[in-house]
Amino acid sequence: MVTAAIELGIDTRITLTAAGLLFILALLLGVWKYQQIRTSPDATAHIYVDIAHRATLLYSFATLLLAVFTELSAWPSAVNLAADAVLLIFFVAAIAAYIVHGWRQDTTNQFHDQTGKSGTHIAMVALIVGEVGGFLVLFTGFLAGQF
Asked: What UniProt keywords are attached to this protein's entry (predicted)?
């Protein structure tokens, strides 16, 4: 049986590669989480090790969703890839923050005691605008290309 090769755009291939890398990272974070569970007196991992593991799993699958919208978008590859990059930068930044807090075990709530710390607020507004805006670019490209 002969099957036709699927030609994916470079933007989709890059996004799928990112999904695979995030999934591998999630699996490795799961090993770290298990190690902490195994060696902890109460059989739990630090909250941010748990969050890093779970969030990375979710982000890996979210990135697969981005790849689908990227492939079906009517926008040029450069536009799609820019939108994917914005989303992925924020995904990875969040994961990195969770890993740092898990490694340092310095907090159980990174937003606790943020009085007078405008940097966190600015970062969260940027995250909201970047993630929602980036996805809206891909979603409108999908709608334009499919309807």
From this structure: Membrane, Transmembrane, Transmembrane helix
